[in-house]
Amino acid sequence: MNSPVLSISRRTRQTPFTNRVTENGVKAYSVYNHMLLPTVFDSVEADYRHLKDHVQLWDVACERQVEVRGPDAARLLQMLTPRDLGTLQVGQCYYTPMVDETGGMLNDPLTLKLAADRYWISVADSDLLYWIKGLAYGLRLEVDVDEPDVSPLAIQGPKADDLAARVFGEAVRDIRFFRFARLPFEGHELIVARSGYSKQGGFEIYVDDSDLGEPLWDALFAAGADLGVRAGGPNLIERIEAGLLSYGNDMTRENTPHECGLGKFCQTQSAIGCVGRDALLRVAVEGPIRQIRSLSIAGEAVPPCTGPWTVFAGREKVGRVTSAAWSPDFETNVAIGMIRMTHWNPGTEVEVDTPDGMRPATIRDSSFI
Amino acid sequence: MNSPVLSISRRTRQTPFTNRVTENGVKAYSVYNHMLLPTVFDSVEADYRHLKDHVQLWDVACERQVEVRGPDAARLLQMLTPRDLGTLQVGQCYYTPMVDETGGMLNDPLTLKLAADRYWISVADSDLLYWIKGLAYGLRLEVDVDEPDVSPLAIQGPKADDLAARVFGEAVRDIRFFRFARLPFEGHELIVARSGYSKQGGFEIYVDDSDLGEPLWDALFAAGADLGVRAGGPNLIERIEAGLLSYGNDMTRENTPHECGLGKFCQTQSAIGCVGRDALLRVAVEGPIRQIRSLSIAGEAVPPCTGPWTVFAGREKVGRVTSAAWSPDFETNVAIGMIRMTHWNPGTEVEVDTPDGMRPATIRDSSFI
Question: Is residue B253 part of a domain?
Answer without folding.
Answer: no
